[in-house]
Amino acid sequence: MEVRLYIQNGHTVYEPVVQGSITWETQRKGQPGKCSFTLIPDEKLQVEEGNAVRLDVNGKSVFFGFIFERSWNSGGQMKVSVYDQLRYLKNTDSYNYSNLSTGEVILMIARDYNLQTGALIDTGHRLSRNRPDKTLFDIILDSLDLTLIHTGKMYVLYDDAGKLVLNDVENMKLDIMIDGSTAQDYDYKVSIDSNTYNQIKIYYDNNETKKRDVYMAKDTGTINKWGILQKDESIDKGVNGQTVAERYLNLYNRPSRSLSVKGAFGDIRVRAGCLIPVFLDIKEMELKNYLLVESVTHKIDEGIHTMDLTLRGVGINS
Questions:
Q1: Do 178 and 160 meet the contact criterion of CB atoms below 8 Å apart?
Q2: 263-283: per-residue pLDDT in tens?
Q3: Neighbour count for residue 234 (Cβ, 10 Å)
Q4: SS3 letters for the chain?
Q5: Is residue 37 predicted with pLDDT exceeding 50?
Q6: Is residue 285 one of the residues assigned to a domain?
Q7: pTM for this one?
Q8: Residue 242 to residue 201: CA distance in whole angstroms
Q9: Same domain for 144 and 101
Q10: Higher model confidence: residue 36 or residue 188?
Q11: How many CA atoms lie within 13 A of 115 on its CB side?
């Protein structure tokens, strides 16, 4: 495995000596990609916040971002934290848009904040939303969530080595396999403590009637088993509240199940949002299916590449 790390400060490009491992982390929603490493002191090396960083593996760029944080230990070694363009989606702003697909919302925001874009797939679903004082992440994820509710299709936004990309997860299947021989360890959890709802309350504050229009969907069977677990959410004018309530109930009326795989053999193609086949015999169930990567941390240390993954999918809902 050939790993090269480059840092650009002004017109100077460095290829510094890294102490220990390089990690690259991605999450499916709401967080930027992150690359972390420790540099050995060098009098010639001059780096600072905002410097561009590129990570190449086997001749291909897999990460591009900017230095956001540095720290030093007693030995003078510098630990560096680098984030990709998604970090700028933590900015707060207000947007009022009409009849735009998620890709068009991303392009609108990218132009306002000078972010580079790549392929933004057409989701085929258009929305009109007023989102005041929200993070850019929230504005985009709101559009993605509503697209999922109305179309049943899941899309993922990620930074592909310096360009924002929106893709259908069905286009992100990989031919690697996670099984008992490639995963050193795993944790499997079933819970109704988060992301589980058996009663949905959708409402619209009607300015014309001066009343609140309420739409409900519930499952008395699981309410009798678990008690009432309610999700409460407002909608905009013109949205079919009952349809939204029923689709939310269909999505969330089940225990959340998460599978964390630790120390799997690394494959640099794996990023959050990918689908990978998993074959594992675990308590209460046998997994033989494609699972969605919710998060992955790659660790490359002296040519040894491993990855930790959090997965969901058929039978693994979170």
A1: no
A2: 899 999 999 999 999 888 876
A3: 12
A4: CCEEEEEEECCEEECCCEEEEEEEEEECCCCCCEEEEEECCCCCCCCCCCCEEEEEECCEEEEEEEEEEEEECCCCCEEEEEECHHHHHHCEEEEEEEEECHHHHHHHHHHHCCCCEEEECCCCCCEEEEEEEEEHHHHHHHHHHHHHHHHCCCEEEEECCCCEEEEEHHHCECCCCEECCCCCEEEEEEECCCCCCCEEEEEEEECCCCEEEEEEEECHHHHHHHCCCEEEEECCCCCCHHHHHHHHHHHHCCCEEEEEEEEEECCCCCCCCCEEEEEEEECCEEEEEEEEEEEEEEEEECCEEEEEEEEEECCECC
A5: yes
A6: yes
A7: 0.89
A8: 9
A9: yes
A10: 36
A11: 28
Domain ends where: 252, 267, 297?
252
Least confident window among 15-29, 117-131, 180-194: 180-194
pLDDT at 85: 98
Q: What CA–CA distance (Å, rounded) separates 287 from 293?
A: 15
- Rounded mean pLDDT of the chain? 92
Asked if residue 318 is part of any domain, the answer here is no
Domain count, the chain: 4
Mean pLDDT of 90-105: 97
Spatial contact of 36 and 80, defined as CB atoms under 8 Å apart: yes
Residue 197 has pLDDT above 80, yes or no: yes
pLDDT digits (tens, 9 = 90+) for 214-268: 999 999 999 999 999 999 988 877 788 999 899 899 989 999 878 899 989 999 9
Using an 8 Å Cβ cutoff, are 303 and 1 in contact? yes
């225990």: which residue's tokens? Answer: 255
Q: Going by DSSP bridges, is the β-strand pair 285-301/275-282 parallel, antiparallel, or unpaired?
A: antiparallel
Range of the domain at 306: 172-191+256-313
Q: Tell whether the torsion through CA atoms of 120, 125, 128 and 130 is positive or negative.
A: negative
